[in-house]
Design goal:
Number of strands of chain A: 3
Largest sheet of chain A: 3 strands, antiparallel
Distance between the termini of chain A: 60 Å
Pfam families (chains A, B): MerR_1 (PF13411)
Strand content of chain A: under 5%
Strand order of the largest sheet of chain A: 1-3-2
Oligomer: homodimer
CATH architecture of the largest domain in chain A: Orthogonal Bundle
Helix content of chain A: 40-55%
Shape of chain A: extended
Number of helices of chain A: 5
CATH topology of the largest domain in chain A: Multidrug-efflux Transporter Regulator, Chain: A, Domain 2
Keywords (chains A, B): DNA-binding, Repressor, Transcription, Transcription regulation
Largest interface: A-B, 67 and 61 residues
Radius of gyration of chain A: 22 Å
Protein name (chains A, B): MerR family transcriptional regulator
Order of helices and strands of chain A: EHHEEHHH
GO molecular function (chains A, B): DNA binding; DNA-binding transcription factor activity
Structural class of chain A: mainly alpha
CATH class of the largest domain in chain A: Mainly Alpha
Organism (chains A, B): Paenibacillus zeisoli
Chain lengths: 166, 166
DNA sequence: CTATAACTTGGAGTCGACTCCAAGTCAATG
DNA sequence: CATTGACTTGGAGTCGACTCCAAGTTATAG
């Protein structure tokens, strides 16, 4: 129950798994708020700052560009999304984006599995936006089968061709 | 069915959902093999080329850098992964990468849901149980993939409090 | 015959996200 | 007191992945 544990930029970088330069860069572009400084001018971080950096790393891993991460942090900082309906909308929309990304990734996994299983390749990985799939948590969704042709940028015979046996 | 349908670069770009410049760029960096040319020098594409480009787009969406996509295409082109055990290993490893990415994304979705549901934030997406594994050294040169140390997402236990578990 | 459109090429420019550097400050150490 | 090390700053450089441009060719339309 110590008062408040604090960290140097180096310790913070280690804990969050990113470089000190990156932390300074995030502050520079104001993705992170200006960190408190000690008397000697050194940056001082607290657990919540590390959590924020971790959140950034996590979102980045989902392929979200830094600019899109901003609204998440704004909400995060305020702990009150209800007050920012616009941000909430953006977040909800990004949630949908992520959900479809999950579907897309799952298809790639299926694709790989099929290829590896039968020693053949070729056949596209259905891309894109799919209509309305719900949420759910594919914990270990073994084979869910490559989805049927749905969306598609255009009405193409693309899906035609050789189907991977099965 | 006609023998072999062919497409111009523009049609190909439209079908694959990327720009013609990007197709030329991929050829320039040899991610795509040099396309056949017509008598007038124009590039000529076939369905399989479009499939390949779609595969690239799909893998890109999973956050894979172009250089890592190469081996996939090599296997794809040969339609015989069995002959390239090394490539198969890389692909398997990328499969794992994708699976963990899915977990990561699901984490973010859960995070958002919790956030939106209770109007509070804070609680990271973290590397939660990183009690005692070696941290990734900052000296890590060029590796952006998910280090094993980076994956320890909390299960949606975030409900109750916000006290970081350590 | 010219204009337009669709392509070709090599190369330059852009953008996001770092990553590195030089010069300086400050605290502790030999 | 000189050195070492961890930090500070502003700014330059890098890298991946495009994106745009100028100059040229070829095919078709008016």
């Amino acid at each position: 129950m110590n008062a408040e544990m604090t960290f140097t930029i180096k310790q913070t970088a280690e804990q969050a798994g990113i470089s000190v330069d990156t932390i300074r860069y995030y502050e520079k572009i104001a993705l992170l708020p200006r960190a408190d400084r000690q008397d000697n001018g050194h940056r001082l971080y607290r657990m919540k700052d590390i959590d924020t950096i971790r959140l950034i790393s996590c979102l980045k891993k989902t392929g979200m560009p830094l600019e899109e991460i901003r609204p998440f942090l704004a909400v995060s900082a305020n702990s009150d999304p209800g007050e920012y309906p616009e941000l909430v909308d953006r977040i909800k929309s990004h949630r949908e984006h992520i959900v479809s990304q999950i579907a897309s990734l799952q298809q790639v996994v299926d694709f790989i599995d099929i290829k590896l299983a039968e020693g053949k390749y070729r056949q596209d990985c259905p891309n894109g936006s799919q209509a309305g799939m719900g949420e759910n948590k594919p914990r270990e969704p073994k084979s869910k089968s490559v989805s049927p042709a749905e969306m598609g940028y255009f009405p193409v015979s693309a899906k035609a061709g050789k189907s991977p046996a099965f």
